[in-house]
């Protein structure tokens, strides 16, 4: 009987001491597995440049266009072999998925694809130049092959910092010169005339 009392007392002591320690250890391990608010806040969405870099790492080539659509970037890449691929890049994780990849060598678009690949200014450089001229967040980038023999350029859509109307800018594919599209220039002129 006395032996049972000793065992019961020892078990009670272990539970009293071990219970809070075990609870604290469990709480600590849960905190280690769950990112803190500061960690979650520090994790930023994948921007246009990050999406372009992730896409060409996954499918080596040249970015033809990219467009943010909710939680993904849609990125079109012309491979080094001239083939076209449509990729998606998750805006949070940066994970790349191939939606479609052409089996042929570009067919009717082969000439345009060669011009894109030969351009001195890539999509990534166009993004950098556009943001230097108009700070904000890039929403889309696309290759503009002017069929009338004009200069080839990149169209970059930027949401300005602090809000306001979206800017559509062109970046010359040879010189990197940034100009605001005519539709935005007309709006800017109207705004100046209203002052």
Mind sketching the topology for me?
Elements (H helix, E strand, L loop, with lengths): L1 H32 L3 H6 L5 H11 L2 E9 L2 E8 L4 E7 L5 E6 L8 H9 L4 H11 L2 E9 L8 E8 L6 E6 L5 E3 L1 H13 L1
Helix pairs in contact: 3-5
Short description:
The chain is of the alpha+beta class and 195 residues long. The chain contains six helices and eight strands; from the N terminus they run αααββββααββββα.
The H/E string reads HHHEEEEHHEEEEH
Strands of the widest sheet, in order across it, are 4-3-2-1-5-6-7-8
Count of DSSP strands: 8
Helix count, DSSP H or I runs of 4 or more residues:
6
Helical content class: 40-55%
Span between N and C termini?
98 Å
Beta-strand portion reads 25-35%
Please outline the major beta sheet: 8 strands, antiparallel
**pLDDT averaged over residues:** 76
Instruction: Output the structural class.
Output: alpha+beta
Principal-axes geometry comes out as globular
Q: Which runs of at least 5 residues are low in confidence (pLDDT < 50)?
A: 10-15, 20-43, 183-195
Assembly classification: single chain
Radius of gyration: 28 Å
Characteristics:
195 residues; alpha+beta; 6 helices; 8 strands; globular; disordered C terminus
Can you offer a commentary on this structure?
With 195 residues, the protein is α+β, with helices and mostly antiparallel strands. It is built from six helices and eight strands, in the order αααββββααββββα. α3 (48-58) packs antiparallel against α5. It is globular. Residues 10-15, 20-43 and 183-195 have low confidence and may be disordered.
């Amino acid at each position: 009987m006395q032996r049972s009392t000793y065992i019961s007392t020892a078990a009670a002591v272990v539970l009293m001491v071990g219970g809070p320690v075990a609870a604290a250890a469990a709480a600590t391990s849960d905190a280690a597995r769950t990112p803190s608010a500061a960690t979650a806040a520090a994790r930023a969405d994948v921007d246009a440049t990050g999406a372009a870099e992730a896409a060409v790492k996954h499918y080596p080539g040249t970015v033809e266009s990219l467009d943010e659509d909710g939680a993904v970037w849609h990125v079109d890449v012309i491979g080094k072999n001239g083939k076209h691929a449509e990729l998606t890049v998750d805006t949070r994780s940066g994970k790349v998925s191939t939606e479609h990849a052409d089996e042929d060598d570009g067919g009717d678009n082969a000439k345009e694809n060669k011009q894109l690949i030969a351009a001195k200014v890539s999509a990534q450089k166009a993004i950098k130049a556009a943001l230097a001229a108009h700070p904000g967040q890039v929403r889309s980038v696309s290759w503009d092959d002017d069929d009338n023999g004009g200069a080839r350029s990149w169209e970059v859509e930027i949401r300005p910092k602090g809000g306001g109307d979206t800017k559509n800018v062109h970046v010359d594919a040879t010189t990197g010169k940034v100009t605001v599209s005519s539709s935005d220039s007309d709006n800017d002129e109207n705004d100046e005339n209203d002052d």
